[in-house]
Amino acid sequence: MVGTIVVAVSVGILIGLTLGALGGGGSILTVPALVYLLSVEPQSATGASLIIVGITSIVAALGHARARHVHWRAAVVFGIFGSLTAFAGSILNRSVDPQILLLAFAALMIVAAGAMLRRTRRGHDADVPTPNPAETEEMRPSAVAVTTKPAKVKITSSQVVKLVGSALVVGFLTGFLGVGGGFLIVPALVLALGYSMPVAVGTSLVIISITSAGAFTERLGTGAAIPWEIVVPFTLAAIAGSFAGRVISDRVSATTLTRSFAVLLLVVAVYVTVQASMAL
User: Fold this and answer.
1) What are the structural domain ranges in the chain?
2) Quick check: helix, strand or coil at residue 95?
3) For residues 35 and 74, what is the distance between their CA atoms, to the nearest angstrom?
């Protein structure tokens, strides 16, 4: 039992670091860790993952919110639409073989990673935070003209469509696979809405907590046992790791974070492809 707790705490810290620094990625590692390292049954692991990732994400989001790195309106819209399909995906989780979907899922991650890498190579101001509509404008020094105040960001109808579309896809995957979806939410916010990496990370954490709650709500009463003796230390360790991840996100440039996230997407995509192919 002691060995199990040690493993749970160690992996939890790693998951928290990933969530805190990158706003995602950790959730896709949670289910394999529960299944292969902690011997939890797959269906129970997906439910446990939603608890771990959901709680850790909302705690990690608090630090990002204090730094004004959360776009609340986008998070709420994304979370509401994502929760709708998360509910449906959770139902299908019990009746559909996910291997084909996993392969398409891996292909989507590769496309997103490639797009993010191209964005940093083209110098799209990855290190300059995108103005957050929730932030108040600050007065510049008197030597600077008033016109240098940051303009408010206006979301176009095309961006709204992309936001809702991304939410529906991410929500379904959250419910179907028991993952938070941050590895897709962050690219969607960066590429579709033009958010800087810090704002995308903070907003993603809020979205993950909302969609995870929606997916877990559907699983209540399905009979899947939750291994609380593992979930509790795992979650506490992940929360601690998320604080360290928050520090990392403050001290590392947005370009480095973006590229690191893209590499993580590629690594996970390769892993998912190999595992899904072997399971076919």
Assistant:
1) 2-279
2) coil
3) 33
